[in-house]
Structure formats: structure tokens, C-alpha cells
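[Solved] Which block belongs to which protein?

Original post:
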Amino acid sequence: MRHVIIAVAAVFFVLAGCGTTRQVDLDGMPVPSAAERELAGRGPVPFTVEPGVRSGEYARRIEFEVYRPAEARTGALVVLGHGFSSNLSAMRGWAERWASFGVPTAVLTFRNSTPFAGHHDRNAEDMVALAHALTKGPVVYAGFSAGGLSAYLAAASDPRAVAFLGLDAVDSGGLALAAEPQFAVPALFLMGESTSCNAKNNMLPAIPGRDGVTALRVRDALHCYFQDPWNDACEAVCGKVVPAEAAERIAETIRTLATAWVLERTGAGPGAGGMVAAAAAGEEGWARRVEAPR
């Protein structure tokens, strides 16, 4: 028990060090265009939400929700994972947004992780099993934080995977680094500033250095801004940006780039990926390409 208490305390103090208020100068921030704000908001397509429960790969009941557009604009499915010590409610905003642009999206609650054993590889297996239960078509795997790691492992192992989106994804135990040779799909890694809450951007070494893979750091973005909806508990640990208008512009940048990538890779919005390409090319914006250490 003493070891458990010490471990919990260590985790608490590491995470507590993340909490901060980051002051951002609005004068230096670009104003999003109408097209960028459109992607950061909600699309025109109505959708329904179908909750479900299925047996996971490790005899656990996996809760999930499928966001189905009334008129799907793609035959692909996005499967989306949440961060550590959370659940699917922390990612509903992403699922709602993508479904409103015509992209079917499923989000699940991971059941394999504990405070002392992430079992992110097992969560990845549950993501793949859910994808195969819901569709026979192509799959885009996406995830936030530790859920980004599980999505990365899923994309590396599933032959149906066509793309990956990491939302300030983190590695754990070198799992992503070990899977990098098998990771072969187009990918976008959206990253925040290096903090303890994103393990100091420790996913960087696992990012393949090849065509079709892009890593962008969103300037001044803290870890919580990659969730949707906003989570006050996350803010208390990982910090926030002030003033509020700067925080909203950062969130809009993340939502625009992530949604543009999803629309491009699923085929629901051909040409939308130009926004990601422009950011990677160093054109005016609040995101810049970041190179993985080699």
C-alpha cells in the first residue's frame, strides 16, 4: 500500500506542475479566415447518435457511441480515442463536428487502463475490433493524448487503416517508437507546447520521417485545447491560455487543422487538406512544422 501511495503522490506532483496560465499577445495572432472558422464550427449535415456496448478483447464491456450523418459524404469511418483517466464524453465535440461535415465517427471508452498500467496496446486492439464491427470499409484512427497512442498502434496494426490523426498524442513505454516500422498510413500529428501534460512532446521520436506524414506544433497551445469539449478538470491540471479571445483562436486553429485533415483523408472534403499543407509550408498561421529528432 505504501508503494501505491507514493506512486499516486508522484503522479499528482508531476501533473500539478503542468497547471499554468499562459499569457498570449493577441496582436501577434492571425485572425482566422471565414473558411477556417467554418471548419472550426459545425457543418450543415444533421446526424444521429447511436450508443452501444460490446465485449472488448479482454472480457470488458466497451461503451461506445456512433455519430451517423444523415447523408454520409464518405465510406470511411473515424474511430476516436480519449485521453488517460477519462471517457468518451471528453471527445464528443470532435465526433459531433466531424459527423456534421458528413463523416461517420465512433468514440469509445477505454476499459483497460488503470493508474498504474496504461495497457494502451489493449485499448488499440479494442479500437480495431470496434472499427471492424461497425464497418467493412476504410478506417481513420484518431485520438487525444494517451488515446492518440492507442490510435497510433491501431493504425499501425489494421490493414484497413487509411490515415491517423494525433491530437497532442503521447507515447508510453516506447510503444509508439516500437511500432513505428509498421506505421505506414498518412498521418497528421498536431502538437502543443512541450509540457509535462504531453510528456514533453515525447511522441516526436516515433513520428516517421517520410512523405505523407506531417507534424505541426500549434503555438501557445496547452494540452487541454486538443480535447473537445473543454474540460475544467483538465484545465486545473494542465493550464489555460489568457485572454479568452487568444484561447479561442488557438482552439479554432486546432479544430480547423484537425477537421481539414479528416475531411481530406476520408474524401468528404477534397481539397480541405490544403490548409494543413499551407501550415506545413510555413505560410501565415498559428501552426508550424516541427521536425522529429533523428
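(Second protein starts here: sequence line, then its C-alpha cells.)
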Amino acid sequence: MKKPINIILQVKVNYNSFEKDYQNNFLDQINLDKIKDDLDIADIDRLIFNGGWYRKFYYLVDNILHKTDIFIRKLNCITKNGENHYISVWPQIVIKYNPLSVDLIEYMAINVRKGEDIFLNKHINDPDFILDCEDLLHYYCLRTETACELNNFSASLNAAYTKNYNQVLNVFVNQKLFINMRYPEIYLLHKTGQAYQGSSSMVLSYLNLVFEFLR
């Protein structure tokens, strides 16, 4: 079994009731039998819950920044030979090592231009002064930007579409806008994913299921 082992599950959450939805729709719905099937774990092997850990998580509600702690569930697969394999279970709205929600990253990627301040230009409001400055938001968006550039996710998505449907994915990108975006590679991936998925919202969280960003 390849290590480290991560599995990403799709979960529906309303950020207006995020903590309740995260518990009810994600943590309480983790199905061990389905995960065994998804990871091709043998029937003779045991899969059990094995605690987890808390981590900080930032998300938006109506352009207002919120912060909470979320629990990442860990599982233990015990093979017939007594070997232990630990599995981390993630919702598609979370990127490993990144405390920003995927939807927050998406919002910034399609709205923030070069030279703009995330707070001063009112892209995001922080009335509770959760952050002193934009540095944390920028740093983790930049990590995702770098991953998109290094892994060329947009080209991979185009190739997958061509293979599946025998035609080129039709992606329109305004070049003048593209070169002025603060996170152009994420913006390009969003536009590509938008065409691929046929939806304009929560595109990156969908693509996180496909590419497992930064894992």
C-alpha cells in the first residue's frame, strides 16, 4: 500500500452552518466499508477509526473571513500479517498543509488582481480582526499557485477531457485579464475546470477530488 495514504471524500457543506455540516455531513458519514472498496483493501484486513488531529481552517461567509478548528479523521488498516497502515480522511474542501478552504482560494484566484491588497481592496472583510495582514492568505494561495504551475493541472485536465470525449476542451480565457491576475495559474485552472465541469462555482473543490492538490 502506497504511503502516505490519503483519501478525499466529497461532502456538502453550507458555510453559513459550517461546523454543524462538517460534523453531520462529513465526520459522521465516514463509511469504512466504502473506503475499503475505494482503496482496494482486502476483506480479510481490518479498518478501524484511529483518532485524528485538529487544525486551523479559514473560510468565507458572504466575503467575511471566519476561522475555526476542524478535525481530520485518521484510520488504521490492520493487515492479516499484523501490519499497520494509517489513512488520513479529507473532505474535498480541504488541502493538506493548507489552512484555507479550497473555496476561499478559488474566490481569491478569480477576484484579486496584481497590486491589489486583499483587505484594503475589500475582496475580503475581517471585522473580527482574525488576521493582522494578508500574508497568511497570500502565502497559502501562492503555494497552490506553485503546485498548479509545477504539475500543469490545466493541461492534464484538457488531456483527460480529450481522451474521454475525443474532442478538445473549449476554454475561453481573456488574456489581458489573465496576465493581470495575482494567481494566474489557479485562475487558468478554474476556467479550465469550469468548462470541464460545466459549473461556475466550487470548481476547485471538485478538482481537488481529481488531482488531490499538494498530496
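Accepted answer:
You had them paired correctly. Confirming on the second one: The chain has eight helices and four strands.
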